[in-house]
Amino acid sequence: MAGWFSRRQFLINAGLAGLALKSPSLFANTSGTPSLSPIMRQIPGANESIPAIGMGTWITFNVGGDEQLVAQRTRVLKTFFDLGGTVVDGSPMYGTAADVIGEALDSLGAHDRIFAATKIWTGDESETRQEAARSGRRWGLDQFDLLQVHNLLGWQGHLETLKQMKANGDVRYIGITTSHGRRHREFAQIMEREPLDFVQLTYNVLDREVENRLLPLARERRIGVIVNRPFQGGSLFRRFQSEPLPDWVGEVGVSNWAEFFLKFIISHPAVTCAIPATSKVEHMKENMGALYGALPDADQRQRMADYVRSL
Amino acid sequence: MSGADWLSYSLQDFVMFGPQVFLRLFVRINQDLWPWQVLAVVAAIGIPVLLFRQGRNARCLAVGLMAVAWAVSGYGFLVGYFGPINWPAAWFGWAFVAQGVLLAAAMLFGGVHGGALSFGRFVALWLIVACGLPWLVLAESGQWQALALFGIAPGTTAAAGALIVAVITGPWRWLYLPLLVLWSLFSAAMFWVLQTSWLLVTPVATLLLVGAGFWLSPRPARSLD
Ligand SMILES: NC(=O)c1ccc[n+]([C@@H]2O[C@H](COP(=O)([O-])OP(=O)(O)OC[C@H]3O[C@@H](n4cnc5c(N)ncnc54)[C@H](OP(=O)(O)O)[C@@H]3O)[C@@H](O)[C@H]2O)c1
């Protein structure tokens, strides 16, 4: 990603100017002064920051050889980049999503704008390098920024190889993933023992178990945290979107439910980045709104959680 | 993985694509095949006509056409279009091809009986399947190009194929049934998760038509040989 900042910044600002015209409240922070800088988070232990909102690709980017939908998802990815996003998360498990990202990156000429994160998802622990190479070909990348062991499948063997790959400079960061609250005890044990750069786990305004052990442990061990299922796979919208937002959320830079859910997550001090998935440009714009403006403090976060529970 | 972990999985976790992409598969295959759909329509009309003509050859030809319909919808739609976004669909696609081979073997090796069928009931059910079910995808997607034709769309083909239970005998019939049941359960679960409620009609109809196939088959079954 080196050497792209000024061009990227230009594109971000151009995108933001459009977004600001559409939704001026988006850029008002608590002090009332406009803020055009995206919320960035430092990767613990590294001299690098990434935007606090990334993008997932499960289901949404698995559109096969449907050229019409590939073009539409390319517009979703373009919107993401234009609004300051860089972190894209995939997995060989996500069907054709990797090919679709590859095609979209090609047509946008955006290989240098992405922080590419994928996973190793095979029970064969000797296949780590081969699977990473296959994914690289599908994304059209020589190297991934982050490789994660998907759902701890064959994690011992894969992690050993990933450590070697990192030492050789074949990947920049390594990590492990879980979701839906699965295998947290084993996950914590690996976090305690292994030199991980990132963990990926499920955290949202309703699924908060990780606040007890995994998030504090990530801070203690200086491990970056990527949050999956920030909208509980979309069910948060199905449950709450018809409800009014509380009056006071303007104070925390929130003007819609997407921002409400995402800002709740990224305001946790252990969280590096949340990776909501969407198939729609309009939803991407809403989600990227959470990358700007004020964030709730600890008290306000508690009020957000209480409000959702009261509905 | 512990038992508790398995319990944390829901049907949702196994469906890796969205409804929009699925419904567009019908539009895409119809656009790509145009105008060869005519052949599918001819087969859909030809099968009941041949079944009720006198003589072994006509009935065998009808079963042969049904075998081709299984194989074409399996290989074309399931392996070619659906498989890339949903791996189990490709496995089902190959099972559809095997079902076609099974039916062809039944046709060649005495698995098709020559007993009289109730013409009115069979044709009425066949017409409901071949002319009614294709519109469900259209109702769900709102796109007329999404018509789920017999011989192309696996759901309509399987539903029509269920009626063929009426003309195949003994062990062939029992070999023919598992795919009908498995496919119906698989597609019903998938439509449930995708919340495409119109489409649920097809697997439910398929299971009912299996029963209808038994009901229509003459007793005792008489082999053509
Ligand atoms: N074990 C693992 O490693 C693991 C497990 C789960 C997930 N993940 C990663 O985490 C990512 C995110 O999780 P997820 O995809 O399961 O769920 P999610 O991001 O919580 O929710 C995605 C759903 O939310 C909807 N949505 C998004 N933005 C919206 C908006 N502004 N308004 C209304 N609806 C909106 C999307 O529908 P539309 O398309 O209509 O916008 C989609 O159905 C995945 O894509 C994947 O990359 C990893």
From TrEMBL, chain B:
InterPro entries found in the cross-reference section: DUF6064
Keyword Membrane set for record: yes
The keyword Nucleotide-binding appears for this protein: no
Transmembrane region(s): 33-53, 60-83, 89-112, 119-138, 144-167, 174-192, 198-216
Record-linked Pfam families: DUF6064 (PF19540)
UniProt keywords, alphabetically: Membrane, Transmembrane, Transmembrane helix
Protein's name in the database: MFS transporter permease
Annotated source species: Marinobacter manganoxydans MnI7-9
